[in-house]
Amino acid sequence: MTYRAPTRLSTKAIGPDPYLDLSDLARCPMPPSARGALLRSVPQQPTEPIRAMWDTAPEPEPLRPGAILLSWKPGHGGGMDVTALLGLATTSVVLATWPSLHGDWTPIVHPTLYEVTGLHAALTVATDALHLANHLVAS
Question: Which residues are registered as beta bridge partners of 20?
């Protein structure tokens, strides 16, 4: 199962294809115009690329439910401090933080991202089924 986040285009995509491999983005500091990389897909296999795009939306703008935004900044010892935010129905929450990751850190964050996207997809299906059941009972 490949998770695909809700569509939300950044105002400034870098390059001709707005969806880039996170492993390419992760090796460099984030551009000042971006608040992070919005994940587009998290494949089952950690060897497959995680597709992302720069998110340049203003900071107060909430993430859509199920969306994951990764941000990173230089940390101690030359690594990157990585933070993942998860969009929920009414707010965004810190999903995880990984301090001082070195090099291509995407294989380290992949398991958490994959599990959370799967859980969110399952909860979405369960919520939709509950709403449908309630609607059928009320009819």
Answer: 52
Enter the tokens of residue 71. 């941000």
- Of 80, 71, 92, 86, the C-alpha closest to 118 is 86
Residue whose tokens read 């449908």: 132
For the stretch 38-72, pLDDT in tens is 999 899 998 899 999 999 887 778 899 899 999 99
Give the residue carrying structure tokens 């986040």: 5
31 contact partners, CB below 8 Å, separation of at least 6: 14, 54
Specify the DSSP element, H or E, that contains 128.
helix 106-138
Q: How many CB atoms lie within 10 A of CB 68?
A: 28
Return the structure tokens found at 7.
Answer: 């569509």
Residues 6+ apart with CB under 8 A from 32: none
3-state class (DSSP) for residue 31: coil
pTM, two decimal places: 0.80
The total of other beta-carbon atoms located within 10 Å of residue 51's CB is 21
| Alpha-carbon gap, residue 54 to 73, rounded angstroms | 15
